[in-house]
# Entry
Amino acid sequence: MSSKFRKVQGEKGFTLIELVIVIAIIGILAAIAIPQFSAYKNRAYQSDAKGNLHNIFLACKAYWADTAGTNACTTAIVAGASYGFVSSPSVTVVITAGTDDEADFEATAVHASDGTSTAYTIDENGAIS
# Structure
């Protein structure tokens, strides 16, 4: 019976301590990587919101060029095919000021998945803050 448990000559393997060390290293790396990944995702969501703001700004500029800046620019108007604004599914864009002409234009965008719920605003000069 004892012959069953004898170690075969030249058989190699990992010890328990080696396996524990490897698992600990993987755990440390995961603890560092996961928060960084979340930060990268939030930055991507914020970039998407900024991109939508820039696109609605350009669509309103095109709309005002067609109407001589006399009509109100709304999200519904510029979302049509002729002005090309298409909002991302998770981004809420609202034109908050300057709906009569481009002099006092302001719009705000927020991405629904952004963990910090950062709202960005674009002014009549195209500056996003």
